């Protein structure tokens, strides 16, 4: 019998979050390949946008794809190539980082990056009484990073919270550790730190701990890394809240795509996973100790 | 003094001779094709091969330039970010001109790309030769500079090409001539011109001499500064040509465009048989090296044996084995 | 034509240290050495002579483990042995001083001397002791450089002395010198010969290669002659005159070594150099070379001759006012010098003259690429033709035109280099050590050639450490000392003693400048 | 001919002489400190300096190893991923042993780290020397391999150290002895031992000889294979020591640990005055080079002039200027 082929194209595990994506994608593939004998899910990772474009060509050159689930490295560069696959009659599911032309996708599953920034900002405005000095660590120059920063800036707009500094730390804990040390040397008074990703938050926390500085009230991240959720559960004073941006969204997307293929349940449209504030009260829902992320 | 007969002279130098050392990379390529076929017969399908070779065109074109730089005794780590920078400049220029010039802004932009490439190469060349800074460090510095400039130009985001130009520009990557994709034709043309320059012109001789022994070159009246600077300029021009082909494929410049290309480029050159310490350059070997790299990546996608986490390891092993084949064939 | 001479078949004086048994060496299909059987005895100086490319260096490398024979073998102390590395030969007591300098330029003199056999104290390298011994050993050879200098900064002659000192550091049984004096001047040569004699007195064996037949005559107990890779014979040293040796080497009669000098007459100034200064080496030197003249430059090692001319042709920072045929030149690089018609041939052929890993033709044409590039591209055929011409004209002995320059014998490399520089068609030719490592027959050819050049209206400047050569060849000789011209000799005054005096002693004021001619 | 001795050319050398060439990197360092102070006086505050120097310890330690490799004529691009790999192995081992051995698993783990480092170095060394593969390519291959292994081991996630070990292990990074942070002491100790080995032992001489002129070294009875392999092993051991210090800093190994460290390491070595083509190595210059790099990054954050987008450009410019200072001081 002709198997239906679902290709999953995602970035290589170049940092914690993408590692989570790879983990969940592979798990989904394994489960589905076992459960649905008529479906074959193929997962391919690519270390760069260029490589991902190549991978798309390679995947569609050999066989006809019934569906493609893609988490694009970058939006611009992947738009045309995905369109080419679509033109071959393939069902397209886009995850997280969108394409430039939304008309290409049949299904879109994503987190809300603006909300990640804004909800965190709102929390700080609230807790700091609308006043205080902040430092921010951003990831790498990409749309997602921009959106989070924008959401955050919108969130504090109108308050007296002041961003003292904002620099790239490449979504990397080491770089974040160093950057935080330097922030601490540069600014004698910091009320709160926001790292727009939990990998970076780990480095930030270590630097603060080592500096023994006491005026810093909050150090927040984002993404729902299990170590950070654990802190929220444990009622950590410095990191009492978190915003989710679960890499498991790839699994959601794969299952929905397969449902569309075999389930006689047409699935189309956009699914936006909310990024509500995770607090001590609801943290357990977001805690997956077995996931690598 | 009486004339005594000379020991018999050996025959005239033949012009075309087969050189096993040069054949190394091609043997490695062949081996890879066979392995690929065994792993997945689709590997040798015309579509797949044409895709892969088309893709390898960027690295091949840049690596042809790198063959000059390395042959002349230099090194250029900045090529990847230079490619991003030039792509950015080109797109910005084309977008700016599109309203007034229409699709004519495309050839104009290509001209700008070439000028930018030459200028970038000149900067590298001058820092290395006049500043007398170890090429590794000098171009690591400009790598940071070009990368930062593209980030700055794009405000950390992307610089997409104007929609009105997209369709007109598309054929530069996606078009074919007599069934052969345009990037392949362009890279072959670049390689052909380059091998003419490197093997048939004065400049090519000077390049190899500067790389083989700086003193001998100097004592022979060759200006190391000029020779090496020109090599960097050629490198810049090659990066520009690659950027020109690249734009329609991805349609945008981003701060991550071309990241780590330098490693691929140098790898292609070395797999191709050119020694990193300078001397004779092997243009066609370099092209074969670029194709080998792209084939390995392709093989990783087409095969299903390897855990996604281990892809890089398998690639590493294959590269080492390819080098061993190369070495062994000598 | 070969005269019959008494061969030495007598019973060996000392014990036999090394015997070569039918040694043969082939490179591909080419045989460069065949069936060489010689005995090297303790307490004996055994000279090997032969034309350039005869196979002398090859034989030495075979004996000292640098290369392996294709056929035949070695017997050391009565035992057949095979050396696969030079180190094994050294362990067996055999050491080679190379014809070409083999030192690591980036390391110091002392480090090079003791490389691979550093002195240690409690496992720590004993630099102090090594420097002390290095100084002593070098001083014995008359070399006063600091053992702390990087070899890169050491003059060629001193490098050779370092290389020799290295071979004298340990007690070897057999020391092989491959043209040790090619880069040395009188003083150093004397010291070296002295040392060689002392080695003999200590009952060591010595193999000695030189194209300076006077040295051979003074030293050798036995002389083995090679020609075209074959052994002509071994002869008792003192029975051979220099002329005998030369004729055995070339297998034909030789005419006079030096061509007749042309009539001295008023000549036009061609190259006029005023106030040349090369910081650290040369101080305010002025001279004039005339059309049709061979002008010699004499001096001891370190007099600054090489630096003077490297400064003039733009290879070293310095300044000088240079006029060619009355027109001022501003030369900032070797290229500009070549284009202006001034050709300079380096004394250091291996490091600065030839691309050793490159074929002969590209080496030949490297300074004159323009001549082979009429339009867009280089004409390989013309290059091959030029190579064939050069091979004929300079008698470059190559068994194949497809060799790399590094595969030529030392003397043939020198000829290739000479051909290379003359291909640029200079009107002033500056040759630094023109016959370094060239056999006697070819020397005559080169001298004739230089004479022919000036006959064509060029000027030729010859820097040489062989006083005989300068006297025989030149029309006029300037003598340098410590970076200055210390005097001038010409005509009858051109004698070794006059030159030596000027080279070593402070000049009296009357002779301090270049006579009235400049 | 009369024998007249030449005038002595140079005065007797003193045993300890000041060498301006060696001083280059320290002058650059000094210049940087002054500029830093002018930009922001906090730059010279003890906490800041101690932070920065502590941070530079990893790169310094690894770069000390790289000084051997480069001095001997090799190159190692794999150090960053090797560090990640060793960190991963070490943490996994410690975690496994923690239940039975308690905090003793920490020293045991350190031993394992060293063994792993030596093994990795040996692999690199053998591929380069016995396999006769250009070091750039060989270690680019193993770089992919080590990186893939750590990704595989961690399932792409993090390998955190057991909570029970954290506190006991913390002092290795955060502890001080007589007020000096431990990593600084460790890196000084490593540099001191290394300079002893490089300058005072036979092995050090062999290393420099192998890098300065392979033929001469070989003719002097030095085994290039052995010398260079040992250099890679030393490099491996240094990476292991760096990894040991690194673990307590963030308490985890991740697939991004050590990314691009190789570039920093090579830059430190070259800024420190060791030539990439091999020969004499400059251990203390290397250490200064590592500190310079970290100081530049620190200065970027402490100054307010530079747009975040342009940080890399300014870093590039400063590195080039530092090299010019170095060159100029010669
Ligand atoms: N690696 C090689 N491959 C081919 N031919 C070689 C090689 N090495 C040397 N030869 C040839 O062997 C011959 C003998 O060379 P050798 O160096 O022994 O001469 P030589 O007697 O020392 O001459 P010279 O006086 O010029 O130093 C030459 O013709 C040379 O070209
Ligand atoms: N690195 C150095 N540092 C100091 N003095 C040096 C250095 N190198 C060379 N010298 C000195 O410079 C002078 C000129 O050297 P050189 O031997 O090249 O002159 P030359 O007349 O050409 O001799 P040769 O007969 O060897 O060609 C000598 O006094 C020499 O000792
Ligand atoms: O890779 C990105 C991750 O690191 C960031 O935190 O969230 C969005 C992802 O695309
Ligand atoms: Mg010889
Ligand atoms: Mg000289």
Give your account of this protein's structure.
The complex is a heterotetramer, with one copy of chain A (about 290 residues), two copies of chain B (about 325 residues) and one copy of chain C (about 525 residues). Chain A has about 290 residues and is α/β, with parallel strands linked by helices. Helix content of chain A is about 45%, strand content about 20%. Chain A has nine helices and ten strands. Chain A has helices at about 15-35, 50-60, 75-85, 115-125, 145-155, 175-185, 200-210, 225-235, 250-260; strands at about 5-10, 40-45, 65-70, 90-95, 105-110, 130-140, 160-170, 190-195, 220, 270-275. Chain A is elongated and about 65 Å long. Chain B has one domain (about 45-330): ABC transporter involved in vitamin B12 uptake, BtuC. Chain C folds into three domains: about 15-95 and about 170-250, P-loop containing nucleotide triphosphate hydrolases (Rossmann fold, 3-Layer(aba) Sandwich); about 100-170, no CATH class; about 270-515, P-loop containing nucleotide triphosphate hydrolases (Rossmann fold), CATH 3.40.50.300. Helices cover about 30% and strands about 25% of the residues of chain C. Chain C is α/β, with parallel strands linked by helices and about 525 residues long. Mean pLDDT of chain C is about 85; it is low at about 1-10 and about 510-518. Chain C has a six-stranded mixed β-sheet with strand order 7-10-11-4-12-13, sandwiched between helices. A six-stranded mixed β-sheet of chain C has the order 19-20-21-16-22-23, sandwiched between helices. The interface of A and D includes residues 22 and 174 of A. One magnesium ion binds near residues 57, 99, 178, 409 and 410 of chain C.
Which keywords apply here?
heterotetramer; A: 293 residues; alpha/beta; 6-stranded parallel β-sheet; 9 helices; 10 strands; elongated; C: 518 residues; Rossmann fold; 3 domains; 6-stranded mixed β-sheet; 23 strands; disordered N terminus; disordered C terminus; binds adenosine-5'-triphosphate; binds beta-D-ribopyranose; binds magnesium ion
């Amino acid at each position: 019998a002709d198997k239906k082929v679902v290709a999953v194209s995602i970035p290589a595990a170049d940092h914690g979050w993408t590692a989570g994506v790879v983990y969940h994608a592979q798990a989904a593939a394994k489960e589905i390949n076992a459960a649905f004998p008529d479906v074959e899910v193929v997962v391919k990772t690519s270390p760069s946008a260029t490589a991902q474009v190549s991978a798309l060509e390679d995947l569609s050159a050999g066989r006809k794809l019934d569906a493609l689930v893609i988490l694009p490295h970058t939006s611009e560069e992947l738009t045309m190539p995905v369109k080419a696959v679509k033109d071959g009659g393939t069902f397209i599911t886009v995850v997280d980082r969108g394409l430039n032309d939304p008309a290409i996708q049949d299904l879109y599953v994503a987190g809300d990056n603006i909300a990640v920034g804004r909800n965190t900002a709102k929390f700080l405005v609230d807790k700091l009484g609308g006043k205080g000095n902040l430092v921010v660590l951003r990831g790498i120059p990409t749309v997602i990073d921009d959106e989070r920063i924008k959401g955050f800036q919108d969130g504090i707009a109108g308050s007296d919270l002041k961003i003292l500094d904002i620099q790239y730390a490449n979504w990397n804990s080491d770089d974040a550790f160093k950057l935080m040390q330097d922030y601490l040397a540069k600014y004698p008074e910091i009320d709160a730190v926001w790292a727009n990703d939990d990998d970076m938050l780990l480095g930030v926390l270590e630097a603060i701990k080592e500096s023994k500085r006491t005026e810093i009230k909050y150090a927040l991240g984002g993404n729902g890394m299990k170590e950070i959720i654990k802190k929220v559960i444990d009622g950590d004073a410095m990191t009492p809240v978190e915003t989710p941006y679960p890499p498991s969204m790839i699994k959601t997307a794969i299952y929905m795509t397969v449902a569309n293929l075999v389930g006689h349940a047409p699935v189309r449209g956009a699914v936006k996973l909310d990024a509500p504030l995770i607090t001590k009260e609801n943290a357990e829902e977001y805690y997956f100790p077995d996931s690598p992320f | 003094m009486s004339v005594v007969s000379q020991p018999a002279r050996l025959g005239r130098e033949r012009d075309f001779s087969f050189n096993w050392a040069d054949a190394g990379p091609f043997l490695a390529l062949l081996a890879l094709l066979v392995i690929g076929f065994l792993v997945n017969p689709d590997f040798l399908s015309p579509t797949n091969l044409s895709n892969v070779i088309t893709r390898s065109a960027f690295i091949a074109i840049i690596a042809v330039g790198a063959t000059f730089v390395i042959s002349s005794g230099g090194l250029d780590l900045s090529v990847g970010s230079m490619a991003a920078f030039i792509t950015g400049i080109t797109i910005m220029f084309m977008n700016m001109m599109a309203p007034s010039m229409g699709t004519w802004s495309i050839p104009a932009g290509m001209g700008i790309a070439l000028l930018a490439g030459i200028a970038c190469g000149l900067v590298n060349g001058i820092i290395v030769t006049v500043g007398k800074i170890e090429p590794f460090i000098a171009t690591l510095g400009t790598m940071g500079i070009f990368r930062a400039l593209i980030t700055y130009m794009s405000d950390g985001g992307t610089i997409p090409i104007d929609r009105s130009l997209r369709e007109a520009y598309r054929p530069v990557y996606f078009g074919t001539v007599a069934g052969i994709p345009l990037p392949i034709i362009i890279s072959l043309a670049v390689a052909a011109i380059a091998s003419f320059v490197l093997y048939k012109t004065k400049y090519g001789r000077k390049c190899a001499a500067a790389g083989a022994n700086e003193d001998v070159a100097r004592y022979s009246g060759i200006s190391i500064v000029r020779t090496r600077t020109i090599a960097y300029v050629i490198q810049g021009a090659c990066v520009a040509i690659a950027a020109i082909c690249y734009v329609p494929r991805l349609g945008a410049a981003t701060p991550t465009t071309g990241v780590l290309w330098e490693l691929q480029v140098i790898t292609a050159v070395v797999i191709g048989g050119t020694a990193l310490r300078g001397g004779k350059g092997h243009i066609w070997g370099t092209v074969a090296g670029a194709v080998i790299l792209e084939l390995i990546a392709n093989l990783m996608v087409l095969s299903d044996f390897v855990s996604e986490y281990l892809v890089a390891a398998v690639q590493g092993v294959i590269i080492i084995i390819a080098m061993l084949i190369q070495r062994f064939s000598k | 034509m070969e005269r019959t001479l008494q061969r030495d078949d007598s019973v060996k004086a000392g014990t036999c240290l090394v015997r070569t048994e039918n040694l043969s060496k082939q490179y591909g299909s080419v045989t460069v050495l065949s069936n060489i059987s010689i005995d090297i005895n303790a307490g004996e100086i055994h000279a090997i002579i032969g034309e350039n490319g005869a196979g002398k260096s090859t034989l030495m490398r075979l004996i000292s483990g640098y290369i392996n024979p294709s056929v035949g073998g070695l017997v050391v102390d009565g035992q057949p042995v095979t050396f696969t590395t030079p180190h094994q030969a050294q362990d067996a007591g055999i050491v080679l001083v190379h014809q070409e300098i083999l030192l690591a330029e980036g390391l110091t003199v002392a480090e090079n001397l003791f490389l691979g056999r550093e002195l240690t104290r409690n496992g720590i390298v004993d630099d102090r002791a090594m420097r002390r011994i290095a100084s002593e050993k070098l001083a014995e050879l008359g070399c006063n450089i600091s053992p702390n200098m990087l070899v890169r900064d050491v003059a060629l002659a001193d490098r050779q002395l370092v290389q020799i000192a290295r071979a004298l550091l340990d007690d070897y049984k057999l020391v092989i010198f491959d043209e040790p004096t090619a880069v040395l001047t009188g003083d150093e040569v004397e010291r070296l010969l002295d040392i060689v004699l002392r080695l003999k007195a200590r009952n060591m064996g010595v193999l000695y290669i030189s194209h300076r037949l006077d040295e051979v005559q003074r030293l050798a107990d036995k002389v083995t002659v090679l020609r075209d890779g074959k052994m002509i014979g071994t002869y008792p040293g003192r029975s051979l005159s220099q002329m005998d040796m030369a004729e055995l080497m070339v297998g034909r009669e030789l005419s006079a070594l030096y061509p007749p000098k042309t009539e001295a007459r008023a000549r036009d100034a061609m190259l006029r150099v005023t106030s040349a200064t090369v910081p650290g080496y040369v101080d305010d030197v002025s001279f004039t070379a005339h059309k049709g003249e061979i002008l010699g430059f004499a001096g001891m090692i370190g007099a600054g001759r090489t630096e003077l001319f490297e400064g003039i042709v733009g290879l070293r920072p310095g300044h000088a006012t240079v006029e060619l045929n009355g027109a001022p030149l501003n030369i900032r690089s070797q290229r500009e010098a070549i284009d202006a018609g001034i050709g300079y041939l380096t004394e250091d052929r291996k490091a600065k003259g030839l691309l050793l890993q490159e074929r002969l033709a590209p080496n030949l044409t490297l300074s004159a690429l323009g001549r082979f590039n009429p339009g867009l591209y280089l004409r390989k055929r013309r290059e091959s033709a030029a190579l064939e011409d050069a091979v004929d004209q300079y008698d470059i002995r190559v068994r194949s035109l497809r060799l790399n320059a590094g595969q030529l014998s030392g003397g043939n490399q020198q000829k290739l280099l000479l051909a290379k520089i003359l291909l640029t068609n200079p009107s002033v030719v500056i040759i630094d050590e023109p016959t370094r490592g060239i056999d006697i027959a070819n020397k005559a050819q080169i001298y004739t050639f230089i004479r022919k050049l000036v006959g064509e209206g060029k000027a030729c400047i010859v820097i040489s450490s062989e006083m005989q050569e300068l006297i025989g060849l030149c029309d006029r000789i300037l003598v340098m000392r410590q970076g200055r011209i210390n005097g001038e000799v010409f005509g009858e005054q051109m004698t070794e003693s006059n030159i030596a005096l000027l080279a070593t002693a402070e000049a009296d004021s009357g002779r301090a400048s270049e006579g009235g001619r400049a």
